[in-house]
Amino acid sequence: MSSTPEPHTGLPAGTPRGVPPGADPAPAVGHRPTPQEIRRWRRFLADERAEAAVYRDLASRRSGEERDILLALADAEKRHERHWLDLLGDDVGKPLRGDWRTRTLGWLARRFGGVFVLALAQRAEARSTYDTDADATPTMAADERIHEEVVRGLATRGRNRMSGTFRAAVFGANDGLVSNLALILGIGASGASNSTVLLSGLAGLLAGALSMGAGEYVSVRSQRELLDASTPSPQASAALPDLDVDANELALVYRARGMAPAEAEDHAADVLATYTQQTVIAPPPSADEHETHGTAMGAAVSSFLFFASGALIPVLPYLFGLTGFVAVGVAALLVGIALLATGATVGLLSGTSPLTRALRQIGIGFGAAAATYLLGLVFGATVG
Asked: What's the 3-state SS for the chain?
């Protein structure tokens, strides 16, 4: 015997709101929730409220389309909140605090916003357990997966805007840490005096920072010049009105840029038929392509400063008068902490595990330093 549909919903009587047609109601009609279920539902409710607040806080720091997207995500979290409220009924009790990671994310969103917070929000959406929870609907689980992709798209915009300068900064800091630690360990292992080690470290700092800054400037400048070289010539666009329409050599331009012959012919004919003084043969590179590389000067300055700051860290113990194995140990400890920090930062921005990236960074850095130290011992023994 079928249940009588509830008014306005069309669902069987007793079905909680938020459960889509065809889905099994959770919990079953007449089921009294256990204390464990109530605690879990209240935790989910608190997390949904906290996540909605994060998106509203992020939206308050943005405008236009990004703001609308973030507010739409907050509305979606409110729908999930309604589901847990319906299951809890009179057992909703005093509001709980959200998960500590969600609370931390909210604190960051209120004070900073930016791509770092979006990257953390992306990871938070990826942690959803709705697809394995018996009381969450398939629609809610699907929502969380789509939310992850929405946040990934928003974070990608910020990553693109900062990728050129950020790449130079991370590479500069990492190179400064590893190369100068390796240099100091190698010189120290060879039996050189404390003053020689200190002088070598400072020389390595200055030489490396200048080299990194100059290299980044040339690299990014060359990349942007290559992009500019692909921009159609204004003189070619100005020649369009005088082209032989029957020969239509304009199609060769589009075939050279990758179009199939028939598609190129059609596109060329359309360009000639709709020509105005504003018509260009092909669009120039988008602003996003230039943003991805950053500016040459910005990359150079970031690389110089971050290499110098990274290279200074292993020199600090010697600047403060430490010698021997004590100086080596302190230098290695400081560099290890810095490598963990840079690795975790890269992990956060890339939406992957900060711990994994941090351990990878310190493993590579200490591996290179250890190899140089061993070479220093060999050369020291040989020269001595």
From this structure: CCCCECCCCCCECCCCCCCCCCCCCCCCCCCCCCHHHHHHHHHHHHHHHHHHHHHHHHHHCCCHHHHHHHHHHHHHHHHHHHHHHHHHHHHCCCCCCCCHHHHHHHHHHHHCCHHHHHHHHHHHHHCCCCCCCCCCCHHHHHHHHHHHHHHHHHHHHHHHHHHHHHHHHHHHHHHHHHHHHHHHHHHHHCCCCHHHHHHHHHHHHHHHHHHHHHHHHHHHHHHHHHHHHCCCCHHHHHCHHHCCCCCCCHHHHHHHCCCCHHHHHHHHHHHHHCCCCCCCCCCCCCHHHHHHHCCHHHHHHHHHHHHHHHHHHHHHHHHCCCCHHHHHHHHHHHHHHHHHHHHHHHHHHCCCCHHHHHHHHHHHHHHHHHHHHHHHHHHHHHHC
